[in-house]
Amino acid sequence: ITIMNGGLIFAGQILTKLAFPLEIDYIHATRYGNEIKGEELNWIVKPQSELKGKTVLLLDDILDEGITLAAIARYCLQQGAAEVLMAVLVEKLHLRKVTPGMRADFTGVEVGDRFVLGYGLDYKGYWRNAPGIYAVKGL
């Protein structure tokens, strides 16, 4: 399940590398909108696929504090998913995770506690289309 909008570019790259039959779906849930500070989780679109008894792979741009990913994983388990795995393009290494020690099952790159943008990661709704991942000072 791709987590929109940030996971779109990452998912587009990863899905063609998975050499087994799978269903593709998406969730649009956000805490940020076009801001850089998160608020309450806003569910825009829930997955249409039946999750009961399935292994679900969540594809997202970043694991920062983990609030959004943890809530989506809980939702999938509540819908009967047998297992929920997380794959993220970027995982921030810091001690502010919603669940201490929370880690993605699959991570593209680990970064320090810096604001990053590009390749799906945005700054106030912009720069998701930047061709790389860029750390920004002062944000």
Can you walk through the features of this model?
- This protein has 139 residues and is α/β, with parallel strands linked by helices.
- The protein has a single domain, classed as Rossmann fold.
- Helix content is 14%, strand content 31%.
- The protein is built from two helices and eight strands; from the N terminus they run βαβββαββββ.
- The chain has a three-stranded mixed beta sheet with strand order 1-2-3. Strands 4-5-6 form a three-stranded parallel beta sheet. A two-stranded antiparallel sheet has the order 7-8.
- Helix 2 links the parallel strand 4 and strand 5.
- The radius of gyration is 14 Å and the shape is globular.
- The termini are far apart.
Domain count: the total is 1
- Characterize the biggest β-sheet: 3 strands, mixed
Strand content: 25-35%
Strand order of the largest sheet: 1-2-3
* CATH-defined architecture: 3-Layer(aba) Sandwich
Outline, from the CA principal axes? globular
Structural class by SSE content: alpha/beta
Mean of residue pLDDT values: 92
Query: How many β strands by DSSP?
Result: 8
Total number of helical segments?
A: 2
What portion of residues is helical? 10-25%
Q: Could you name the CATH class?
A: Alpha Beta
Radius of gyration over C-alpha positions, nearest whole angstrom: 14 Å
**SSE string, helices as H and strands as E:** EHEEEHEEEE
The CATH topology: Rossmann fold
The low-confidence parts are: none
